[in-house]
Each structure stands twice: as C-alpha cells, then as structure tokens.
C-alpha cells in the first residue's frame, strides 16, 4: 500500500494503550495479546496510504471489515498493521499511541490510532501503514506536507 518514496518519511515509536482510552475492545484479548506496554515505547516504521488528509480506505477497514473508518470511533485515525500488530485479526480495533521524532517535521507528540487492516510489507519488525490523516497528525503544526513527501 505504501510507496517506496514514503519509507524515509518517519521513524515512529509506538505504545499500545489500554482499551479504556479508545473504547471497548473489539475482540477479547487472546493469550498473545498484550493489553498494555505501559510506558515502554517500541521502535517502529510508518508509511501512509490514500489521500494526504484522508482516512485511507474511505468506506471499509480492509481485513478487519469495519465500515466508514472516516467516522466515529476511528475518525480516520486508522492504520494497517503488520503481523505482530494485526495478529491474524486479533489486533483489529487495537489502539496504539504513536509518535515520530525523525525527520525534523515530526512533533514528537503522541497520537492515537486504531488498527483497521492488515499489512504484509516487511519494512520493520513493527510497521504501521497509516491513513494520510493519521500520518499527518504526527507532524508539527503546519508541517504535515513536509512529513508527507
């Protein structure tokens, strides 16, 4: 889903947040689902797809089957996740706090995203393929276009 020109765009760190922060869990936690990473931030990579300020796939959540991901509860702040994030569908609806610190356009302030689709691109151990809106939300004020080349 992501173009190779976007791979240099962001080094992201992510922490899974509790279900309380983003509504009831969509699926009950399984034996391999971590409910919280606490304050530990894990290094990840991020790319983006769809329109620069869009919700990605406008009317559905891909492999998770959600509809209208541009509306509540997702509000376009959604992402595809690779295998350790998507977890064969058990990660659908999971919430993550993500932030970026590189390049300079990154705000280093966390934003909340939901997993609504799978991503099988082997870019990093943890790879978020974010909607354009979610990717731009990690930028400093007025710098979203610099973060999204």
From TrEMBL:
Signal peptide: 1-22
PROSITE patterns to which the protein is assigned, alphabetical: EXPANSIN_EG45
Pfam families reported in the protein's UniProt record: DPBB_1 (PF03330)
Keyword Signal set for record: yes
First-listed, main subcellular location of the protein, grouped into a coarse class: membrane
InterPro entries named in the record: Expan_Lol_pI, Expansin/allergen_DPBB_dom, LolPI, RlpA-like_DPBB, RlpA-like_sf
Sequence ranges assigned to domain Expansin-like EG45 in this UniProt record: 61-149
Domain of life: Eukaryota
Membrane topology, from the record: Peripheral membrane protein
Record keywords: Cell wall, Disulfide bond, Glycoprotein, Membrane, Secreted, Signal
GO cellular component: extracellular region; membrane
Protein's cellular compartments: Membrane; Secreted, Cell wall
Entry similarity comment: Belongs to the expansin family. Expansin B subfamily.
UniProt function note: May cause loosening and extension of plant cell walls by disrupting non-covalent bonding between cellulose microfibrils and matrix glucans. No enzymatic activity has been found. May be required for rapid internodal elongation in deepwater rice during submergence.
Name used for this protein in its record: Expansin-like EG45 domain-containing protein
């Amino acid at each position: 889903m992501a173009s190779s020109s976007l791979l240099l765009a962001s080094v992201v760190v992510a922490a899974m947040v509790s279900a309380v922060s983003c509504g009831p869990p969509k699926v009950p936690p399984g034996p391999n689902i971590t409910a919280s990473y606490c304050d530990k931030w894990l290094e990840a990579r991020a790319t983006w797809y769809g329109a620069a300020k869009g919700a990605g796939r406008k009317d559905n959540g891909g492999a998770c089957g959600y509809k209208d991901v541009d509306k509540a509860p997702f509000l376009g702040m959604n992402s595809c996740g690779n295998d350790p994030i998507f977890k064969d569908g058990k990660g659908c609806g999971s919430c993550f706090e993500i932030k970026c610190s590189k390049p300079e356009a990154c705000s280093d302030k966390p934003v909340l995203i939901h997993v609504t689709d799978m991503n099988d691109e082997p870019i990093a151990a943890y790879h978020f393929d974010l909607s354009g809106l979610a990717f731009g939300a990690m930028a400093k004020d007025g710098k979203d276009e610099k973060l999204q080349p």
